[in-house]
C-alpha cells in the first residue's frame, strides 16, 4: 500500500475562524463588507494531524475545545478558513444525522439522496436499502414525505443510513442520542459492532472508560489546538492530570 493510500485523514495547517456579530443585521452585512465590526473566534488553530487507515482515535477535550468543528470539517459540513484537509474513504458521521435530507422527498427517496451525497451509486444503495429501512423501523412511513416525520423519526432514518452503508471512516459523537430508550440501545449495539470491525474511527467522548474500550490512540484538544497526541492510556492520563 502506498503511503498516501494508508492515510485516512490528514490535516495540514488547518484553521477555522468564526466571526461573531452583535446582531443578525450585522451578520448579513458582514457577508458583503469585511469592515462590519465583529469579534473573531479561533475554533481550530493551525492543526496538523495524520490518521492512518484502521486507527481508532479518541478525541478528548472540554466544551468549546474545537472537537465538533474539527469533525465537521472532515465531513464537509463546514470548511476550513485556511489550510488543507485530505479525506480518503466513505465517511459516515453520527453527528448531524438529518443533514442532507430534502423535506419534500419520502424517506426512501432520501435514502438515495443521502447515499449519493456519501459517495455511493444507486446500485449499491439499492442493495443496502432493505437493511436501512428495517433498522430505522419506519414501516409505512418510509414512502411518506420526510416533512411528516417527527424529529425522532428523521434522526432514526439518518442514523440507519449512516450505520448501514458500510463506511470506511466512522465519526461518532458520544453525546448523540437518537429516539427512545429501546432504539438508543439498538444504536449503541450497532455502533459497537461497527467499531470492532476494520474501520477508521474518530470518537468524541468525555468518558475515559469508553475511550479505552474502543480506541488505541488519544488526542487531547484545548482552545482549538492539539495539546497531546499519543496512546489512549497516556492521553487519558494527560486529560486527567495536566489539562
Ligand atoms: N457556527 C459557529 N459560530 C460561531 N462560533 C462557533 C460556531 N461553532 C462553534 N463555535 C465556537 O467555536 C468554539 C469551538 O466549538 P466546538 O463546538 O468545536 O467545540 P467542542 O469541543 O465540540 O465543544 P462541545 O464539547 O461543547 O461539543 C467554541 O468557542 C464555539 O462557541
TrEMBL record:
User: What Pfam family does this protein match (any one)?
Assistant: ABC_tran
Which GO molecular function entries does the Swiss-Prot or TrEMBL record give? ABC-type transporter activity; ATP binding; ATP hydrolysis activity
A Gene Ontology cellular component where this protein is annotated is:
membrane
Domain ABC transporter intervals: 9-243
Q: Which SMART domains match?
A: AAA
| InterPro entries membership | AAA+_ATPase, ABC_transporter-like_ATP-bd, ABC_transporter-like_CS, ABC_transpr_TagH-like, Bact_Polysacc_Export_ATP-bd, P-loop_NTPase
- Give the record's keywords alphabetically: ATP-binding, Nucleotide-binding, Transport
Top-level taxon in the UniProt lineage: Bacteria
* Alphabetized PANTHER family for the sequence: TEICHOIC ACIDS EXPORT ATP-BINDING PROTEIN TAGH
Family the UniProt entry places it in: Belongs to the ABC transporter superfamily.
Q: What name has this protein been given in UniProt? A: ABC transporter ATP-binding protein
Species: Hominenteromicrobium mulieris
Amino acid at each position: 500500500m502506498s503511503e498516501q493510500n494508508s492515510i485516512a485523514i490528514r490535516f495540514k495547517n488547518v484553521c477555522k475562524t468564526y466571526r461573531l456579530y452583535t446582531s443578525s443585521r450585522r451578520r448579513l452585512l458582514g457577508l458583503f463588507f469585511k469592515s462590519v465590526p465583529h469579534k473573531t473566534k479561533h475554533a481550530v488553530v493551525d492543526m496538523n494531524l495524520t490518521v492512518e487507515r484502521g486507527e481508532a482515535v479518541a478525541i478528548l477535550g472540554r466544551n468549546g475545545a474545537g472537537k465538533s468543528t474539527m469533525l465537521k470539517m472532515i465531513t464537509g459540513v463546514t470548511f476550513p478558513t485556511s489550510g488543507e484537509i485530505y479525506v480518503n474513504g466513505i465517511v459516515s458521521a453520527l453527528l448531524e444525522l438529518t443533514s442532507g435530507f430534502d423535506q419534500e422527498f419520502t424517506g426512501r427517496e432520501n435514502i438515495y439522496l443521502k447515499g449519493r451525497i456519501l459517495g455511493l451509486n444507486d446500485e449499491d444503495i439499492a442493495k443496502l436499502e432493505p437493511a436501512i429501512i428495517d433498522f430505522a423501523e419506519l414501516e409505512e412511513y418510509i414512502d411518506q414525505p420526510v416533512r411528516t416525520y417527527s424529529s425522532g423519526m428523521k434522526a432514526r432514518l439518518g442514523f440507519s443510513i449512516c450505520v448501514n452503508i458500510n463506511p470506511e471512516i466512522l465519526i461518532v459523537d458520544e453525546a448523540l442520542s437518537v429516539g427512545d430508550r429501546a432504539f438508543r440501545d439498538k444504536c449503541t449495539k450497532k455502533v459497537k459492532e461497527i467499531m470492532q470491525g476494520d474501520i477508521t474511527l474518530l470518537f468524541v467522548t468525555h468518558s475515559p472508560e469508553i475511550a479505552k474500550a474502543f480506541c488505541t490512540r488519544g488526542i487531547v484538544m484545548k482552545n482549538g489546538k492539539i495539546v497531546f497526541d499519543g496512546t489512549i492510556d497516556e492521553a487519558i492520563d494527560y486529560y486527567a492530570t495536566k489539562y
